């Protein structure tokens, strides 16, 4: 029962977290909240199933995830420096794609993605480390 | 860079080479290489005598830190030449003496000894030749350092270390005071150059900083020159090897303070404060030192107190000599500068006879194995040369004709008697102190000179008390004291050799502007003054001094004579103990090792500071005009929130406590919702959830909530402190609110509202601020999170039991 519910609910939460993440620029949400929401969904999976199963299904290395998140966040800042702008200058542009139509692209999004990855990594890394600690 | 600069630097350069000479040329005693340098410097410096005696001075400029006005300027006039000659001349003799004194090349750490000695010599030359106050200070501290190193040369002896520490503490404290005084002089005159400061002497005297500056400078001079009550380090410094005692603690370093006082006389001298402090401390030190010397049983201790007393004498004369600034010397004649003349002359005499006496004591110690006058006696026939030299030195120190000590003592009496005729600073009434104290002190001086001499060389020889077979010292040990003693005799018979070559130019340096240009002080030192009061004083000194010495046996058993140590040592020792125990007490009181105590200290300080600021700046204000209306549901939220907060400290079950904190967190999220902060509310909700999960995880590992029995007093303190924090923070917040309306500042939020979409193309202003306007904050915050997570991993995964090589 729990496992069944979890499989459904977890994906709804995940979807909502992705929504929160993308909605961030114009609506409540953003990388931090999205990341926490994702972490909550994953936590739910860990609670419903055992740690080994989830590790097999989702073979994330959360330490790497934190590093990648930091790199992306720093990278957007450094990229603007390469263009001769101050660190972390953000740009945005409306681009028309063949299928998606007119899309608003902004460099704040990759920065937020970095935040997102770090938050997910931090939350899960700390909780799993403490949970797995049997000493 | 001139040659004079090199004179100062040469000892330091040679000091660098000494260890190499010691290591690679083992068959030659290192001292021979060292001796060449002071001898060369002495010969070089003596060439300046003709020019200096004509009244010329030499000045060479070398920038060091020119932006701060600190330069390595050397200045050579009569005063600095006199000291430089003493330093290099006696330095040569002391090095020669030390070659034979520390004859064992294998056992003695000669490389250390000569490095320290050269360092000291260079520093001392630096002190006397520098024109810049900061340079003087640097060299001054170097002499303190080198002196401590030399005192603790036999560092395995506990008494040596004690003496070194004591001299270090006292002289460096004085040095710091002196630095403060120099800084004040700079504040007043805007220059560190002594000559420029002297030129502004009249400006300084009227300045309110004058007295503090003078006291600070004098503190430096008095500690260095062992004036009462700072003299206590000198007897303990006698643990040093005897060449060191002879060099540092009789002829050179202890005269650094004398030099400073002489140098500063043109700056401060024309004031009653200077006159009274310098001559008062000097005359008292003279008495104290000579009375204390008579109680000593150790030859070197007698000499140490004797040095203290003689330094007091010179100091007193310098003080009395400053009276010359108040008179027109050309009109009233020589009387008013006799004191300065006597000071300079006695300075030279003291260096000669005290240096030779120290060397004699070293020889006695070396040949008999003891310096205790109770064990010595009858050495006259066994050590005839030592005896002769000692006789000359002692008679000179006691002030007996025909030696040079007699001449300077006569002049000292003249100056002291003159002091009664001065009509300044209440001297008509108080002036009588000077001749009386001088006379009594001289009686004691005569007595301890006799004691020292008679007990060592006359009487019965007591071989059973001595460990060595006694015989005359080797010639190398005898040459330096013989040279000094012949100087005593030469200066005694032909004092006018010195008169215009060095004494008169020195007086010019101490008392500039007293004479008109081109005039010279009249210096004529002679033995026979006729039947005047000084002669009768000297006769009295001899008679009473002999009486004291002859009756010494009667007094020897009294408590006064049995106690050798200066009573001021108890003050020093106890204050040192008190300082340590007091600091320990304060530290123990404050550093309890209990986190909750530190927390109480911090919060009490914070509350106190904020409360004080509120009261002091009258910052307390409540303004209800601009307060928003509170909807009823907020009351409900606040009520529940307050309820959870109040209940929290009383919960004794951990899960309940976690739940209660959870309630608080969710209520805060609710408040965010009410106050229209959706992002915050979402974040707060999620963070609270994650926190509760973490708490529960950690809870699994924790023991039962411990019931501690707290004393009511502890509880009361905590209650008061927490109430204080709450009240002060609340008041501050209320006042800040009221004040912000009273003094409105335009907020920056309007900019974000206006430009969030324009500039950053986002409608969620919070998020735009987070990732765009203030993206750096966010970047660093996720870094904080990452570090925290890695910290958790390290703390849980890496379990060192100790001893691992990380």
Automatic annotation (TrEMBL), chain A:
The chain crosses the membrane at residues 7-24, 30-49, 61-88, 108-131. InterPro entries: CPA3_antiporter_subunitB (IPR050622), MnhB (IPR007182). It is a multi-pass membrane protein. Residues 1-124 form the Na+/H+ antiporter MnhB subunit-related protein domain. It is found in: Cell membrane. GO terms for cellular component: plasma membrane. Keywords: Cell membrane, Membrane, Transmembrane, Transmembrane helix. Its main location: membrane. Belongs to the CPA3 antiporters (TC 2.A.63) subunit B family. This is Na(+)/H(+) antiporter subunit B. It comes from Anaerobacillus alkaliphilus.
From TrEMBL, chain B:
Residues 717-797 form the MrpA C-terminal/MbhE domain. Keywords: Antiport, Cell membrane, Hydrogen ion transport, Ion transport, Membrane, Sodium, Sodium transport, Transmembrane, Transmembrane helix, Transport. It is a multi-pass membrane protein. InterPro entries: CPA3_Na-H_Antiporter_A (IPR050616), MrpA/MnhA1/PhaAB (IPR005663), MrpA_C/MbhD (IPR025383), MrpA_C/MbhE (IPR046806), ND/Mrp_TM (IPR001750), Proton_antipo_N (IPR001516). One of its GO terms (biological process) is sodium ion transport. Residues 640-704 form the MrpA C-terminal/MbhD domain. GO terms for molecular function: antiporter activity. Pfam families: MbhD, MbhE, Proton_antipo_M, Proton_antipo_N. The chain crosses the membrane at residues 6-25, 32-50, 81-101, 113-130, 136-155, 167-188, 203-223, 244-262, 274-294, 301-325, 337-364, 376-398, 432-454, 475-503, 531-552, 598-615, 630-648, 655-675, 681-702, 714-734, 779-800. This is Na+/H+ antiporter subunit A.
């Amino acid at each position: 029962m729990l496992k069944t519910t979890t499989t459904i609910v977890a994906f709804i939460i995940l979807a909502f977290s992705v929504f929160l993440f993308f909605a961030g620029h114009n609506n409540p949400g953003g990388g931090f909240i999205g990341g926490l929401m994702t972490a909550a969904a994953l936590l739910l999976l860990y609670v419903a199933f055992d740690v080994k199963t989830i590790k097999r299904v989702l073979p994330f290395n959360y330490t790497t995830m934190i590093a990648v998140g930091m790199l992306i966040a720093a990278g957007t800042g450094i990229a603007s420096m390469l263009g001769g702008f101050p660190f972390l200058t953000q740009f945005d542009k409306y681009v028309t794609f063949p299928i998606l139509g007119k899309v608003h692209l902004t460099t704040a999004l990759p920065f937020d993605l970095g935040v997102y990855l770090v938050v997910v990594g931090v939350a899960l890394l700390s909780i799993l480390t403490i949970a797995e600690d049997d000493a | 860079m001139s040659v004079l600069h090199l004179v100062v630097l040469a000892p330091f350069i040679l000091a660098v080479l000494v260890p190499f000479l010691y290591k690679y040329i083992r068959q030659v005693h290192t001292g021979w290489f060292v001796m060449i340098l002071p001898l060369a410097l002495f010969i070089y410096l003596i060439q300046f005598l003709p020019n200096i005696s004509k009244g010329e001075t030499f000045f060479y400029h070398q920038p060091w830190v020119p932006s701060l006005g600190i330069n390595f300027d050397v200045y050579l006039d009569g005063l600095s030449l006199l000291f430089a000659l003493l330093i290099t001349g006696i330095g040569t003799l002391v090095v020669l003496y030390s070659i034979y004194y520390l004859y064992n090349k294998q056992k003695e750490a000669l490389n250390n000894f000569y490095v320290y000695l050269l360092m000291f010599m260079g520093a001392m030359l630096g002190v006397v030749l520098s024109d810049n106050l900061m340079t003087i200070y640097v060299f001054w501290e170097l002499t303190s350092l080198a002196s401590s190193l030399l005192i603790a040369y036999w560092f395995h002896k506990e008494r040596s270390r004690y003496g070194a520490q004591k001299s270090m503490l006292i002289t460096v404290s004085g040095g710091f005071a002196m630095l403060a005084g120099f800084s004040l002089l700079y504040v007043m005159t805007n220059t560190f150059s002594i000559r420029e400061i002297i030129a502004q002497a009249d400006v300084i005297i009227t300045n309110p900083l004058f007295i503090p500056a003078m006291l600070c400078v004098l503190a430096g001079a008095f500690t260095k020159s062992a004036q009462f009550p700072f003299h206590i380090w000198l007897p303990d410094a006698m643990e040093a090897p005897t060449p060191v005692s002879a060099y540092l603690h009789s002829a050179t370093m202890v005269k650094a303070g004398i030099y400073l006082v002489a140098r500063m006389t043109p700056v401060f001298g024309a004031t009653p404060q200077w006159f009274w402090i310098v001559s008062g401390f000097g005359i008292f030190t003279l008495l104290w030192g000579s009375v204390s010397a008579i109680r000593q049983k150790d030859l070197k201790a007698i000499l140490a107190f004797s040095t203290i007393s003689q330094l007091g004498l010179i100091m007193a004369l310098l003080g009395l000599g400053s009276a010359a600034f108040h008179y027109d010397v050309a009109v009233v004649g020589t009387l008013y500068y006799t004191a300065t003349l006597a000071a300079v002359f006695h300075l030279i005499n003291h260096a000669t006879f005290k240096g030779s006496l120290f060397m004699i004591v070293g020889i006695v110690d070396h040949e008999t194995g003891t310096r205790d006058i109770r064990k010595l006696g009858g050495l006259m026939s066994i050590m005839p040369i030592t005896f002769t030299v000692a006789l000359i030195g002692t008679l000179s120190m006691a002030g007996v004709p025909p030696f040079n000590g007699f001449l300077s003592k006569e002049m000292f009496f003249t100056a002291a008697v003159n002091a009664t005729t001065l009509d300044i600073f209440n001297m008509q009434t108080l002036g009588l102190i000077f001749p009386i104290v001088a006379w009594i002190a001289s009686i004691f001086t005569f007595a301890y000179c006799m004691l020292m001499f008679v007990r060592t060389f006359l009487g019965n020889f007591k071989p059973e008390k001595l460990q060595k077979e006694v015989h005359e010292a080797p010639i190398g040990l005898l040459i330096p004291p013989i040279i000094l003693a012949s100087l005593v005799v030469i200066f005694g018979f032909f004092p006018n050799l010195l008169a215009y070559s060095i004494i008169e130019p020195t007086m010019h340096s101490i008392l500039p502007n007293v004479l008109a240009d081109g005039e010279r002080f009249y210096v004529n030192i002679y033995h026979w003054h006729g039947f005047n009061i000084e002669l009768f004083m000297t006769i009295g000194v001899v008679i009473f001094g002999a009486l004291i010495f002859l009756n010494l046996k009667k007094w020897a058993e009294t408590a006064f004579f049995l106690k050798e140590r200066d009573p001021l040592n108890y003050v020093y020792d106890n204050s040192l103990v008190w300082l340590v125990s007091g600091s320990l007490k304060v530290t123990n009181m404050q550093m309890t090792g209990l986190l909750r105590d530190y927390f109480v200290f911090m919060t009490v300080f914070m509350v106190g500071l904020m409360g004080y600021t509120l009261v002091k700046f009258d910052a307390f204000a409540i303004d209800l005009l601009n307060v928003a209306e509170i909807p009823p549901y907020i009351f409900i939220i606040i009520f529940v929130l307050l309820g959870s907060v109040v209940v929290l400290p009383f919960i004794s079950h951990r899960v309940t406590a976690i739940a209660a904190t959870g309630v608080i967190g969710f209520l805060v999220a609710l408040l965010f919702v009410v106050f229209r902060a959706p992002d915050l509310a979402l974040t707060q909700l999620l963070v609270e959830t994650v926190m509760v999960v973490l708490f529960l995880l950690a809870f699994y590992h924790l023991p039962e909530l411990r019931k501690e029995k707290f004393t009511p007093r502890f509880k009361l303190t905590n209650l008061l402190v927490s109430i204080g924090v709450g009240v002060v923070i609340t008041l501050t917040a209320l006042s800040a609110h009221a004040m912000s309306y009273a003094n409105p500042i335009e907020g920056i939020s309007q900019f974000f509202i206006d430009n969030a979409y324009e500039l950053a193309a986002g409608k969620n202003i919070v998020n735009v601020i987070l990732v765009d306007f203030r993206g750096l904050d966010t970047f660093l915050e996720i870094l904080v999170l990452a570090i925290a997570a890695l910290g958790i991993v390290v703390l849980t995964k890496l379990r060192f039991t100790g001893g691992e090589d990380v």
